[in-house]
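Below is a filled-in request sheet from our internal design queue. Each sheet records the structural input a requester submitted and the sequence that came back. We keep these sheets so that new team members can see what a complete request looks like end to end.

REQUESTER: design group, bay 2
PRIORITY: normal
MODE: inverse folding
CHAIN LENGTH: 79
BACKBONE (tokenized):
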């Protein structure tokens, strides 16, 4: 008779990280129905194919992001 045999190893809090859900920004939690709003650029848009990162949360290294747009616009303003 097995004494201490466990069918499955216990998951001791490792790998409990939640998978980002498509359609919900993993940073701010916005959705298509509740998008972030920027007075200059309007509601946010998705910058990744899986719809887990919105333009307002993405960094300037992402060319689709709001930050990148802002950067471009500020550079164009130099005249
Ligand atoms: Zn966001
Ligand atoms: Zn957003």
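RETURNED SEQUENCE:
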């Amino acid at each position: 008779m097995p004494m201490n045999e466990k069918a499955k190893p216990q998951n001791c809090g490792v790998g409990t990280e939640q998978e980002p859900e498509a359609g919900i920004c993993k940073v701010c939690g916005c959705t298509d129905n509740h998008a972030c709003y920027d007075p200059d650029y309007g509601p946010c848009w998705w910058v990744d194919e899986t719809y887990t990162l919105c333009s307002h949360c993405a960094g300037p290294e992402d060319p689709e992001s709001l930050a990148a747009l802002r950067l471009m616009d500020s550079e164009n303003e130099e005249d």
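SHEET NOTES:
- The chain has one domain: 21-79.
- The CA atoms of residues 49 and 79 lie 36 Å apart.
FILED BY: M.R.
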